[in-house]
Amino acid sequence: MDNRTLLEFMAVAEKLKCQVRHSWTSTGRRESVAEHTYRLCVFAWLVRREFPECDMDRVMEMCLFHDLGEAVHGDVPCFLKNAQDNEKEADVIEQIASILPEKEREELKELFSELEDNHTQEAKIVHALDKMEALIQHNEASIDTWLLLEYDLQMTYGQDQVKFSPYLQALRKMIERDSVDKISKAEKNTKQIESRNSDGFYITKDPEKIDKRRVVELLHQSEWAKERPESMIFKAMENSVSYGVFDKYDFMVGYARIITDHVTTFYLMDVIIDEKYRHQGLGTILMDAIMADVGDLWGILHTEDAQEFYTRYGFKIKGFGQDQVMEKER
Fold it and tell me: Where in the chain is the domain with CATH 1.10.3210.10?
């Protein structure tokens, strides 16, 4: 292979670092396709002795290239993928393979053909591990990043692919138990947050209940966000943990959000109570719920007119002028 061809193919492979997947990492950022590919290879290496009759070098090769087409067309979540996407991916693989000399081109096409046919033990292992790696990644990410449909998907995804192997069935079952534990813990936390006060007001971070357009209305009552575009507010919500204050009729009267890695730090933002519902202690029950939720994480916020309120929760003023923030130590 000449050097220019090698570099051209390397440039295509580099795009796997740039394409993000639907999954999130344990530190609260989107996972790249390259990261998924790397850990799938690690996964295959770890289980290699469970399949002594298989060509595990072949398995590793298929793991290495299985998502190569996503360098061009990007990741499509399994619950959105259709026949058209599969056809497009096959076309992209043909285009990428055409970069290579004939020998390497045919080797790559044979790998994808084997994966597509899924008749060999090696191909079946790759498909099973691919599904389970995604499940593991979801278990490692904050459950706030899960879509509602993924609560069921964690129980069913990959079940068919592991049927050929008792070992993989047992491993899949253990991953499922981890998912059940994670969901149970989240439901317990949500139930605690949703407990109502004597007037029927309650706090929830259930994304299905929080009305985005109502959040826009609330934030546009504030001085700091009154001119913030709706699209920016929506995008900020997608990348945050949102909390809503609701009355007994399920009308949303308050909002706040945090940006967090769920491990070390949270950044409190956009705390707002509808001007018609202020002076009823709703800001207090909102902050009580948030602080109970974040536990002992390091906290940061910006405020110019509510510093006294936040000192109740352990926040202290740091810095001066435009650099001034309030911080709560662990």
Answer: 3-188
Q: What span, in angstroms and rounded, lies between the C-alpha atoms of 185 and 182?
A: 5
> In this predicted structure, what is the pLDDT of residue 85?
85
**CATH topology assigned to domain 194-328:** Aminopeptidase (3.40.630)
pLDDT band at 296 (very low <50, low <70, confident <90, very high): confident
Separation CA 79–CA 61 (nearest Å): 26
**What confidence score (pLDDT) does residue 143 get?**
86
Query: Which structure tokens are listed for 135?
Result: 């499940």
Q: Which residue is listed with tokens 């639907």?
A: 22
CA distance 138 to 180: 12
Which amino acid, 71?
A
Q: What is the CATH number of domain 3-188?
A: 1.10.3210.10
Tens of pLDDT, residue by residue over 236-251, are 999 999 999 999 888 9
Residues 6+ apart with CB under 8 A from 325: 300, 301, 302, 317, 318, 319
CA atoms within 13 A on the CB side of 227: 0
